[in-house]
Amino acid sequence: MFAASHELAFSYENRPNSEVDTAYVAGRPVRQVVRLTRIDVLYQGAVLRRYELAYEPALAITGRSRLASVRECGAGGTECLAPTVFEWQNATAGLGNESGLAATVVNAGYLAESHLWNTADINGDGRSDYVWAGGTSLASATIRYRLGLAGGGFGPEVDTSIACPNGIGVPFDRNGDGRDDLLTIPAARIWTIVPGTDGGLGCPGHDRSPGADADGRLSRPRSQRRRSRRHRLVRTPGFLQQQPGRAGPIRTCRRRILRGTCDPLRAIGSGRVRDGTGGHVPGRPGQRIDLDGDGTEELLMNEEYTIARISAREYATEFFDGSFYGGVLFDFNGDGCTDYAYKHYTNRLRVRIGGCGLPWSGPELQGPVWTEAAILSALDWNGDGRDDLLLRSATNWRIALSAGDSLPAIADTGIPHGGAEAAVAADANGDGLRDLVTRAGGQFRLRLRSGVKPDLMLAATDGFGVAARYTYQPLTAAGIHVRGTSAIYPEQDMQTAATWSQSSMSRTAAARVPCRPASIGTKACASICWDAAC
After folding, report:
1. DSSP letter assigned to residue 434
2. 3-state class of 151 per DSSP?
3. Residues 484-502: pLDDT tens digits?
4. How wide is the angle at C-alpha 285 spanned by C-alphas 447 and 183, nearest 5°?
5. Tens digit of each residue's pLDDT (9 = 90 or more) over 66-87
6. How many domains does the chain have?
7. The domain containing residue 78 runs over which residues?
8. How far apart are CA 312 and CA 308, in angstroms?
9. 3-class secondary structure for 312-354?
10. Spatial separation of the C-alpha atoms in residues 423 and 88, rounded to whole Å
């Protein structure tokens, strides 16, 4: 066997203690304690090229160690070009000023706040919209909404005239078209879909998209109609529920369409909802619940004393040693697998790491002491890609930042909550950052996320003064992207808040590029320049 003539050698250094990146990947702790500092290209054991990497002296606000420069050196690593330096876009922690919008939301103490109002992207434009049960009482309440606009504003109130005596239901994207629909329970106690459309909410049962039969029946795919499930969805006022241990097909419901109206639908088949005992479906609108990290969505069902974890292939039950009321789903460590945080009966916050598997496999991390309200919210406060915990104290919002493997001490944000009972993370202006929405004093209150998307490269400038500069905008910005209309199912025309980049080149004042060191490769100085008159 012949020895290789060329090799690549990598050199590392220890990160400063404050820069150690810690997270759980596939349910196991991973600590990145070193960083790359040099790459050598070797020929017959001798250095042919060397690339030296340097980093910013301070950790970014997101907790990342960012590359500051790369320098290329020739044979032996002695003769070097001036380094190429990098500039980065910085995050700003926290939220902006509060703006309010009046809304008459019905009062119903037995329904959770999320069933009286919520945010959802019902028209699929990449911006969150307000949806609520409006009126003086639940008996006469109707579903109403305001569409999100560019800049974080909202359009006029629209009353759909759709009765919602059991609340607005659960927002979810039923057919993958990028528009959130509502799964509701009208007075007839029959599961009803209120579809999201380009113009807002449509009429119940008028959906003709794939997944709805020609007569408006909302049913499972034919290949799955005979398949039994141990868990069946049932209902108690305002909540989705589950009855374990009952095997049987999920029944479909035929509905007669009253064309051209939004009148209640009349059931002509089975599918009436029964009462039961249990909890609700946790998760904020637009949140992808992925328990095993395979990219497909799963379902969690709050059963009051346990949580059912359900996928298309299997199910499992997650047990607790006490109440987990007020818990929240979030991505604590940025591994793409859903985790769960709650207040333990010992008055400590606890985080259950998802484990990237359907059955929960732990671990459960013990957080700081918390003796106030048990209702938790998830919000990426510092833009590091990990969800943090937003907590409601007596007067202000407090934050517990995720360190990837622990929750440090709880900090006061200095932002008053104004008596809000709950908070929702939403993208009101379509910039790809999560904003904070609350309800108090007859108003929806919005605080936009401060700053811009972090750690995107702004410029790279080489030693000769030649620079590439980058600007960024979300796809929701005017003139960037317009959603098409020609896609055929299962393909969909989509509008998201993904980031769009544009680059430009520039250089310093007219000057000839200096000769490269002989060890890197020589050319006549006159032939390595930017000016035609060189």
Report:
1. -
2. helix
3. 878 776 777 778 888 888 8
4. 135
5. 999 999 999 988 899 999 999 9
6. 1
7. 6-92+454-527
8. 13
9. CCCEEEEECCCCCCCCEEECCCCCCCCEEEEECCCCEEEEECC
10. 31
H or E segment at 193?
A: strand 192-194
- In degrees, rounded to 5, the angle at the alpha carbon of residue 504 between the alpha carbons of residues 494 and 495 is 5
Tokens of 271: 């599918």
Contact at 8 Å (CB) between 182 and 143?
A: yes
Antiparallel, parallel or unpaired: β 34-43 and 6-14: antiparallel
Comparing 20-34, 146-160, 189-203, the range with the smallest average pLDDT is 20-34
Give domain status of residue 327, yes or no: no
Structure tokens at 386: 């990990």
Per-residue pLDDT tens over the stretch 316-351:
899 999 889 889 998 888 877 889 999 999 999 999
Give the strand order in the sheet containing 376-379: 376-379, 388-392, 396-400, 411-416
- The answer to whether residues 291 and 298 touch, using CB atoms and an 8 Å cutoff, is yes
The one-letter amino acid at 289: I
What is the model's pLDDT at position 280?
A: 64
DSSP one-letter code for 390: E
The radius of gyration computed from the CA coordinates of the chain, to the nearest angstrom, equals: 28
Residue of 67, 72, 84, 86 lying closest to 41 (CA atoms): 72
DSSP per-residue letters across 392-410? E-SSEEEEE---SS-----
In a domain, 52, yes or no: yes
DSSP 206-260: ---STTB-TTS-B---GGGTT--BS-EEEEETTEEEEETT--BPPPPB-EE--TT
Report the alpha-carbon distance of residue 455 to residue 21 in Å, rounded: 15
Report d(CA 83, CA 16) in Å as an integer.
23
73 part of a folded domain: yes
Model pLDDT for residues 135-169, shown as the tens digit of each residue: 989 999 999 999 999 888 999 999 999 999 999 98
482 assigned to some structural domain: yes
What's the CA gap between 92 and 77, in Å, rounded? 39
* CA 323 to chain CA mean position, Å: 27
Helix, strand, coil fractions of the chain, as percent rounded to 5: 5, 40, 55
DSSP 8-state symbol, 205: T
- DSSP characters over 67-133: EEEEEEE-GGG-SBPPPEEEEEPPP--SEEEEEEEE--BPP-TTS-HHHHEEEE-TT-SSS-EEEEE
Task: Say how far apart CA 286 and CA 389 lie, in whole Å.
Answer: 18
490 has which bridge partners? none
Across 333-355, b (16+ Cβ under 10 Å) vs e yields bbbbbbbbbbbbeeeebbbbbbb
* Rounded Cα gap, residues 402 and 386, in angstroms: 7
Task: Give the Å distances, CA to CA, from 230 to 118, 203, 248, 289, 308.
Answer: 30, 32, 7, 21, 11
